[in-house]
Design a protein that fits this description.
The complex is a heterodimer of chains A (about 290) and B (about 375).
Chain A (H helix, E strand, L loop, with lengths): L19 H13 L3 E5 L3 H6 L11 E3 L5 H15 L4 E7 H6 L2 H9 L5 E6 L25 E2 L2 E2 L8 H7 L4 E6 L3 H12 L5 E6 L3 H4 L6 H10 L6 E4 L2 E5 L8 H4 L15 H18 L4
Parallel strand pairs in A: 1-2, 1-3, 3-4, 4-8, 7-8
Antiparallel strand pairs in A: 5-6, 7-9, 9-10
Chain B lengths: L1 E5 H11 L4 E4 L6 H12 L6 E4 L3 H13 L4 E5 L1 H6 L1 H9 L5 E6 L13 H4 L7 E4 L3 H15 L8 E6 L7 E5 L3 H7 L16 E2 L8 H30 L7 E4 L6 E5 L3 H14 L4 E6 L1 E3 L3 H7 L5 E6 L9 H9 L6 E6 L9 H12 L5 E2 L8
Parallel strand pairs in B: 2-3, 2-4, 4-5, 5-7, 6-7, 11-12, 11-14, 14-15, 15-16
Antiparallel strand pairs in B: 1-8, 6-13, 10-12
Helix pairs in contact in B: 1-2, 1-7, 3-5, 7-9, 10-13, 11-12
The chains are: A alpha/beta (about 290), B alpha/beta (about 375).
């Protein structure tokens, strides 16, 4: 059972007010429990939680490089196995470290099926370096390296489907979650750390600074992603979707219009054709996962 | 016990005797025979170790980093392109003060692609904070692994080390070696006692970032540890001599150097050829000696200056080139001899596996005597 009163991520760190990732981490550690070792790649989380000589982590924590967290965790797991120790090992990394630069190490660790849980806090761009596009940036989002302009609608590509890629590695448990539904997130983390083998959770973590919304609206924006079908919360056991959160879907406009990264779809005038493309992505998600109520 | 072994197998046996608890490696020529032999030992239960078949060298060293931080003695081996792929992790391991030992089967860097020997690969990592030891023969390669773990794991040192030995020239050559017993190695090398480790019972944060208020001090501490490693290598090298009968107390080693007028300076297997050439030149009345550098990092500058105080001419044989400057060994020798009247000449040679024979050593001595140096030695005629 998750102990919701457990606080393993101290307040006083340097995240922005309203940071989705920091709330996600707090919930993740409640789900994982005290007997946990955390590995973090370079990124926002690493920087805002550990400026030497301060640390926000009340569990053992290690950061090595941007792209090697899965390999570092593989080594830790091998070491604990050799020593007969039973700590849970979780990696908490941003989407850039996970779906882009860390993909090789991630694939290797999942192919070898180390007993680890990889949790990606997905804020859909390189936020630490100033909101550059990653492989997890959604279609048409404007970032500093995929800016909207007079001849561009922003990011040209859809999000890389890393949960499916890792499920294809034979991962016993793959899930998506969002910090906007903390009980669900904590439960999924608890399931993952108690499932032997390499498990993966991708957590939607709205970034008020990078996405352009007020820091008081993080949960609201997170919920809208699910309610519009642009983010689907589901669980896969051994590659098969077992459960997806059903919703009475709202039009995608309600999610897009509250974020500055999609402002170009509404100003100077509303671009119905472009918004329809994003609606089609949500419709496809809804059909694939059968989430419509 | 004396055994006739391939160099790679001698190193694998030495590694087994050091009881690494986690091994992570990725195959690359000419390192493969080492990691294959270790895999077989694990498969045969001759070695109780977690062996991780990683998907790249980058992951190999990253996995070792994690295992070391979690409290295990770790081992890897690589060369050339593999080491280059580890570049970022190498700096990280040293900065995190993790005492990982890694074999480098020295090989040239691409392009052009070459699987053959020179020492450009480990030299390129000279600034990364790893101790660098170079072996002349397979016995020394075997011994230096045991010594390296002893030095690196000392709580006053806590640094990683490369044990470098020349690809193919040593890795694939059979030589007789004196293989210590497990009891002897256990008596010399205690079980790994990590200074600190990842432990849920005593949580600490590893690898935090440092602002400009702190970063300089971390680098200063790293440098101080590296300088302390000189004494540690001498101390444990002497202890090695007492226990195994082969003394490694010197970071450098002289051969017929005491009364020499010309000194050759080199690292690795070429030193064996040089010694044979010196014997022949001595018979002809030439007073030539060798200063072998066993430890390139930390660099034994004072030791070199003191050993060469009576020498008139020095010829440095560099199996590497810092393009746009000189050979990396010559650069540092010149620094060590700054202010002296010794003439130092640099010879870049043997790159990409070009064979160096006794006649070449003699030719280089002739060139140095004539004051001709700072050149690539042995270039094809069409380039001359």
């Amino acid at each position: 059972m998750v102990d919701k009163t457990l606080e393993l991520f101290e307040c006083g760190h340097r995240a922005c007010g309203g940071c989705g990732a920091s709330s996600a981490v707090r919930m993740i550690l409640k789900g994982a429990g005290e007997n946990t070792i955390v590995v973090s790649p370079t990124g926002c989380l690493e920087v805002f939680s550990t400026p030497y000589p301060e640390t926000a982590w009340k569990v053992p924590w290690i950061h090595s490089l941007f792209e090697n967290a899965s390999a570092v965790a593989s080594g830790i797991e091998a070491s604990l196995k050799r020593q007969g120790r039973k700590e849970k090992i979780i990696i908490i990394g941003g989407d850039g470290a996970t779906v882009d630069i860390g993909m090789l190490c991630l694939s290797g660790a999942f192919e070898r099926n180390h007993d680890i849980t990889y949790i990606c806090y997905d804020n859909e761009a390189y936020m630490n370096t100033g909101i550059q596009r990653s492989g997890a940036t959604p279609f048409d989002a404007s970032t500093t390296t995929s800016p909207a302009g007079s001849c561009s609608m922003g990011n040209k590509h859809q999000k890389k489907d890393v949960p499916a890629i890792l499920a294809a590695h034979g991962a016993p448990y793959v899930a998506t979650a969002t910090m906007a539904y903390p009980t669900d997130l904590m439960k999924k983390v608890e399931t993952a750390v108690n499932t032997p083998g390499a498990c993966y959770i991708q957590v939607h973590a709205p970034c008020c600074t990078g996405w352009g919304f007020d820091g008081s609206k993080t949960i609201e924006v997170g919920k809208l992603a699910v309610e519009t079908g642009l983010w689907v919360n589901y669980e896969m056991m051994n590659g098969i979707v077992k459960k997806a959160k059903k919703v009475k879907r709202k039009p995608v406009e309600e999610y897009l219009s509250v974020q500055k990264r999609f402002r170009h779809l509404f100003k100077p005038q509303k671009n119905d054709a472009e918004i329809a493309k994003i609606q089609a992505i949500a419709d496809a998600n809804a059909e694939k996962f059968g989430i419509d109520l | 016990m004396k055994e006739i072994l391939e160099g790679s197998h001698a190193v694998a046996e030495a590694t087994r005797l050091c009881r690494p608890e986690v091994i992570a490696a990725y195959p690359i020529t000419p390192q493969t025979h080492i990691v294959e032999a270790l895999a077989q030992m694990v498969a045969d239960c001759r070695l109780q170790s977690e062996y991780i078949c990683v998907e790249s060298e980058f992951s190999a060293l990253s996995a070792c980093l994690g295992a070391s931080a979690a409290g295990s003695r770790t081992y890897s081996a690589t060369t050339s392109q593999g080491l280059a792929l580890m570049f970022e992790v190498c700096f990280n391991v040293a900065g995190m003060r993790l005492p990982i030992v890694m074999t480098i089967a020295n090989r040239a860097m691409s392009a052009p692609l070459s699987i053959w020997n020179d020492q450009q690969d480990s030299i390129a990592l000279r600034d990364s904070g790893w101790i660098q030891l170079y072996a002349e023969d397979n016995q020394e390669a075997l011994d230096l692994h045991i010594l390296a773990y002893r030095v690196c794991e000392d709580h006053d040192i806590l640094l990683p080390a490369f044990v470098c030995f020349d690809g193919f020239i040593l890795t694939h050559t059979y030589e007789p070696v004196d293989m210590p017993t497990q009891e002897e190695v256990d008596a010399y090398l205690p079980a790994f006692n990590p200074y600190q480790r990842l432990d849920a019972k005593d949580p600490i944060s590893f690898g935090m970032y440092a602002t400009p208020d702190y970063y300089l001090e971390f680098r200063y501490e790293n440098q101080r540890a590296m300088l302390r490693a000189k004494d540690a290598i001498s101390k444990y090298g002497a202890l090695f001599g007492e226990q195994f009968g082969r003394d490694y107390s010197g970071l450098i080693e002289g051969y017929k150097l005491e009364d020499a007028e010309i000194a050759l300076i080199a690292m690795g297997s070429i030193c064996g050829t040089i010694k044979d050439a010196i014997d022949e030149m001595r018979a002809d009345g030439k007073k030539v000696g060798l200063l072998k550098i066993r430890c390139y990092r930390p660099f034994p500058d004072e030791e070199i200056a003191s050993a060469l105080s009576h020498i008139k001419t020095v010829a440095v044989l560099d199996k590497n080139i810092s393009l746009g400057s000189k050979g990396a060994v010559a650069l540092e020798v010149k620094d060590a001899l700054y202010g002296s009247s010794i003439d130092v000449y640099d010879y870049i040679l043997g790159l990409g596996g070009r064979d160096i024979r006794k006649k070449d050593i003699k030719a280089i001595v002739d060139l140095a005597e004539k004051g001709s140096g700072d050149m690539f030695y042995g270039l094809r005629e069409e380039l001359l």
